[in-house]
């Protein structure tokens, strides 16, 4: 009904007024914020860059998003105050503002506030928001969920005195009910000096005044913090985009790196094969040297055995020689006299000489044995030296080979590990490239389908053009046939001495045109008699086609020339025949000299006077010239209509070429658009994957924190505010507040923002 429509319109008007007021408030706040930033930049530039730090709102940040509104309400108008180093610097800034006429501004000198805190400024009893330095309240005096406002803000350590000055007299409480309980309950004595601010921005002053300004200054301050957080998030998004671009650049270089790694892997493989071949050769050489060493050791053992046997033999012979000497001496002493007497001295001397010779022979043999022993010992020493040298060289060579083998194996293993890692990366990149290739193949198939459709349309247009060409050729043939019939009629009329009435031109022009055409045809017939029939047909067709096209092209121009000359030849039809003929011949000669190739255009036949029925029609309607003019106009309109139809049968080749170029440009633009869309879809898919991964990790972390907060808060609440018989009813009811901790996301209705950005 009209009443309901009126109410809905009124509600819509109220909503629009509210939105308009909010928009104006936001614009004013943005303008005010811009002015504050400009003033701060000017002060930093003109007064002191290091001494002016910015506003109290810009130099701090809430500890969590759920405390944003409460901290903004606690700061109040002081959030726009500028932080400076000293009182003297604040005076300089004020002087500059007065000189430059930049408006008013409040300053918070850090050094002055620090000295005030050292002197003990906690005894002040100011009623305004902030400005009172109070110590943190005792933990047992606060219910669960209540915090000192200074602990709810994160800032640099050098600004601690400023925020203690602004927030030390404020407590953040969960709700207004808890604030009233603290203000007017049993704990009133311990918290009577503090201001109480709820999480929703409700303020309970020390005097009991309750204020709520979420749509005013508090809301604007909270919106500024949210805007700063959004700016930081936008910076993070830009960084992520730069990382994505870096990853795309790395993907482009992966193929080159893969080729390099593959070449290195092949080179290392060849080196490994060469080292294995060298190792086999070295093993064979070591085996040969080991066999040679074994043979030499066997020979050395045999020489030692022979030496021992010779030594035993020499010892036995030396003992035998000593025994012989002893026996000879004994015999000489015992039987010298008897032998000398019995045998004679000569026989004894001969025997003695014989024995001495035997002893000398034995000594010579012993000397030879000693020489052989010395030679054998020298050979043994030489063999030992050679064996030791060979053993040392073999050991050194083996150690070097082992070291080289270990180093080569270590280097090859390391390079193989790097190569395998690069190969794995290359496989992953290749899979990604294969996926992109599949997408490109699908896009190519789509393009091929579209191209096939375009080709079909082009074929259809070609067929249509061929049909139109055939119709144009048929129309040209019909026109040529009509021209031949007209020429035949005129030739017969001239042969019989008849003069056909003409609408324009003279009979001389008609005869010139007719007989010139006959001469041309006779010349063509005489020149084609000596040629073959096959060679005659094609040129005739070409000439006929050219004649048709020429006649078709000249017919509109001929019609225009004829219409233009009707006025000039009107007097010739009314004049006497002889006079008109003479003047017409003079004009014909002049026209022939000026334009000899356009004789055909100099006359128009009045076809309405050729047939008998036409003459009869004219004789019947002599008294009604309007009827005659109407019939002539109808006939002329029919001629014009046929000429227009004939012109429409000729195809416009330039339009076809332009259409072809347009289709090519459309194909190129479509390909470029598809490529851009494919790149954008890939980037959007990567961004969506990153967002999903971030949301998943945030959900896991948030669930863990929610469970942990509930457990810890329940334990703390049970320990501090358990059921005690000594507590009265008010305190026991107060202990139930905050018994459970619920952690959830703060998000406006209809907001589709990611979970990581919610409160």
UniProtKB/TrEMBL annotation:
> A GO biological process this protein is involved in?
cell division
Compositional bias (Basic and acidic residues): 403-444, 540-576, 584-594
Superkingdom of the source species: Eukaryota
**GO terms for CC?**
cohesin complex; nucleus
Q: Which GO terms describe its molecular function?
A: ATP binding; DNA binding
What InterPro entries does the record point to? SMC_hinge, SMC_hinge_sf
What are the start and end residues of every segment in region (Disordered)?
A: 118-137, 391-444, 462-488, 523-598
Annotated coiled-coil segments of the chain = 227-320, 659-693
Please report the name of this protein according to its UniProt entry: RecF/RecN/SMC N terminal domain-containing protein
What is the protein's species of origin? Toxoplasma gondii CAST
């Amino acid at each position: 009904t009209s009443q309901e429509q009126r109410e809905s319109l009124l509600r819509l008007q109220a909503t629009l007024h509210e939105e308009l007021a909010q928009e104006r408030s936001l614009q004013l706040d943005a303008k005010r914020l811009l002015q504050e930033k400009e003033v701060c930049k000017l002060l930093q530039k003109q007064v002191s860059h290091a001494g002016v730090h910015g506003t109290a709102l810009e130099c701090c940040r809430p500890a969590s998003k759920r405390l944003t509104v409460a901290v903004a309400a606690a700061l109040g108008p002081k959030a726009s105050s500028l932080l400076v180093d000293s009182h003297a610097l604040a005076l300089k800034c004020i002087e500059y503002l007065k000189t430059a006429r930049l408006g008013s501004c409040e300053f918070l000198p850090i050094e002055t506030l620090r000295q005030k805190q050292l002197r003990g400024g906690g005894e002040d009893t100011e009623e305004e928001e902030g400005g009172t330095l109070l110590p943190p309240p005792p933990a047992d005096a606060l219910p669960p969920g209540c915090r000192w406002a200074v602990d709810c803000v994160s800032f640099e350590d050098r600004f601690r005195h400023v925020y203690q000055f602004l927030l030390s007299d404020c407590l953040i409480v969960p709700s207004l009910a808890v604030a009233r309980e603290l203000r007017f309950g049993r704990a009133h004595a311990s918290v009577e000096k503090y201001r109480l601010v709820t999480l929703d921005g409700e303020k309970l002053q020390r005097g009991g005044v309750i204020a709520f300004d979420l749509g005013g200054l508090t809301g604007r301050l909270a919106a500024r913090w949210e805007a700063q957080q959004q700016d930081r998030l936008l910076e993070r998004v830009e960084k992520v985009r730069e990382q994505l671009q870096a990853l795309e650049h790395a993907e482009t270089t992966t193929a080159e790196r893969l080729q390099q790694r593959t070449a290195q892997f092949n080179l290392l493989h060849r080196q490994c094969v060469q080292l294995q071949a060298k190792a086999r050769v070295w093993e064979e050489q070591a085996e040969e040297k080991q066999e040679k060493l074994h043979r030499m050791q066997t020979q050395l053992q045999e020489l030692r055995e022979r030496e021992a046997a010779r030594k035993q033999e020499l010892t036995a012979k030396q003992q035998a020689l000593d025994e012989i000497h002893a026996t000879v001496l004994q015999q000489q002493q015992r039987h010298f006299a008897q032998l000398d007497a019995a045998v004679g001295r000569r026989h004894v001397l001969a025997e003695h000489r014989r024995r001495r010779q035997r002893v000398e022979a034995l000594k010579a043999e012993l000397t030879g044995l000693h020489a052989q022993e010395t030679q054998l010992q020298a050979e043994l020493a030489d063999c030992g030296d050679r064996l030791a040298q060979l053993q040392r060289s073999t050991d050194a060579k083996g150690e070097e080979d082992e070291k080289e083998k270990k180093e080569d194996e270590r280097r090859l293993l390391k390079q193989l590990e790097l190569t395998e890692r690069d190969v794995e990366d290359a496989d992953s990149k290749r899979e990604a490239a294969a996926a992109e290739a599949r997408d490109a193949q699908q896009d190519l198939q789509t393009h091929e389908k579209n191209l096939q459709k375009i080709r079909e349309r082009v074929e259809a247009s070609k067929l249509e053009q061929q049909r139109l060409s055939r119709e144009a050729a048929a129309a040209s043939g019909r026109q040529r046939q009509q021209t031949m019939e007209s020429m035949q009629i005129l030739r017969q009329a001239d042969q019989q001495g008849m003069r056909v009435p003409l609408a324009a031109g003279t009979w001389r022009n008609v005869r010139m045109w007719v007989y010139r055409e006959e001469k041309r045809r006779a010349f063509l017939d005489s020149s084609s008699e000596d040629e073959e029939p096959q060679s005659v047909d094609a040129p005739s067709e070409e000439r006929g086609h050219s004649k048709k096209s020429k006649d078709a092209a000249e017919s509109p121009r001929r019609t225009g020339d004829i219409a233009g000359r009707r006025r000039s030849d009107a007097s010739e039809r009314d004049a006497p025949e002889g006079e008109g003929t003479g003047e017409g011949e003079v004009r014909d000669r002049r026209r022939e000299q000026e334009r000899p190739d356009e004789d055909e255009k100099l006359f128009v036949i009045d076809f309405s006077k050729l047939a008998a029925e036409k003459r009869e029609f004219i004789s019947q309607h002599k008294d009604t010239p309007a009827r005659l003019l109407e019939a002539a106009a109808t006939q002329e309109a029919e001629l014009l209509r046929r000429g227009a139809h004939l012109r429409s049968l000729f195809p416009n080749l330039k339009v076809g070429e332009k259409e072809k170029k347009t289709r090519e440009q459309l194909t190129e633009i479509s390909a470029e658009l598809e490529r851009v869309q494919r790149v954008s879809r890939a980037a959007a898919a990567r961004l969506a994957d990153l967002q999903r991964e971030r949301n998943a990790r945030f959900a896991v972390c948030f669930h863990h924190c929610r469970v942990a907060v509930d457990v810890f808060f329940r334990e703390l609440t049970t320990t501090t505010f358990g059921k005690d018989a000594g507590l009265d009813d008010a305190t026991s009811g107060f202990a139930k507040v905050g018994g459970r901790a619920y952690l959830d996301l703060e998000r406006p209705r209809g907001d589709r923002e990611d979970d990581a950005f919610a409160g």
